[in-house]
Design brief:
There is one protein chain. Helices cover 64% and strands 0% of the residues. With 241 residues, it is mainly alpha-helical. α2 (11-28) packs antiparallel against α5 (72-95) and α8 crosses α13. The relative contact order is 0.10.
């Protein structure tokens, strides 16, 4: 989820590109150069069955179907295309794997594209931006997640909102919880004034619209609502306990 939110490759991917590009430079060097001579000696050991780093690099190249010998810029472009493309494909597959990653149950409904999400650079207030991140990646204490980490694990149907007595998930928190009704009404009135079509949407579409908007004003309003609602919820829970 962090990779998907930021649209950034992990360091391991950049390392693979660097390793293959370095090897390609060695491959193309003149045999009179000292570095190339060392390479040739190690390569001879590799050919004769000795375990060397060259063997691991060749295995890496085979995995990505990369061939050595091209000009540096062309080779680097090829490496990035194949290795980055493979990571994005694997990311899209993993995001759909809710069975092995239950915390993705909501995330894959709001983000299927590997790119930096607009709220990260459009919402200037760090408190609002952080609150929105927490809700989007399920890094919060709503019952839907808290119950998953309880021992013993609480069945989903029992992970209810203290104020509403129904399933407390992200959609309920953002769109329905009675505890935040006044603030939500204020938010929705402003959203409808700017986007009248909002009021005819289904709840799931409203949820995606609010969290995945490209309008900096709407995103800021939503971030403020989430931040204040998390705080209000914490205060409410303290009074109940």
């Amino acid at each position: 989820m962090v990779y998907g939110e930021c649209g950034q490759m992990p360091p391991s991917v950049h390392c693979k590109v660097s390793i293959l590009c370095y090897f390609n430079r060695l491959f193309n060097m003149d045999d009179n150069m000292i570095v190339k001579r060392v390479y040739n000696e190690i390569h001879a050991l590799h050919v004769n069955g000795f375990p060397t780093w060259i063997g691991k690099v060749c295995e890496l190249a085979r995995n990505y179907n990369v061939t050595f010998g091209k000009k540096p810029n062309e080779f680097k472009s090829q490496c990035k295309s194949k290795i980055y493309g493979e990571f994005r494909s694997q990311w899209r597959y993993n995001v759909q794997d809710i069975k092995n990653n239950p915390s993705l149950r909501m995330y894959n409904t709001i983000n299927k594209r590997f790119e930096m999400q607009p709220y990260l650079y459009l919402v200037k207030n760090i408190k609002y931006r952080t609150a929105m991140s927490k809700l989007r990646v399920s890094s919060h204490t709503l019952e839907i997640e808290r119950g998953r980490h309880s021992k013993p694990k609480i069945p989903i149907e029992n992970r209810v909102c203290l104020s509403c007595q129904c399933l407390e998930d992200e959609e309920h928190f953002l769109l329905s919880c009675y505890l935040f009704e006044a603030d939500r009404t204020n938010l929705i009135n402003k959203v409808i004034h700017k986007y009248p079509e909002y009021h005819v949407m289904e709840n799931k579409d409203k949820f995606v619209f609010l969290l995945c908007n490209h309008d900096d004003q709407i995103l800021t309003w939503v971030g403020r609502f989430i931040f204040r609602s998390f705080r209000k919820r914490s205060e409410y829970h303290l009074t109940r306990h």
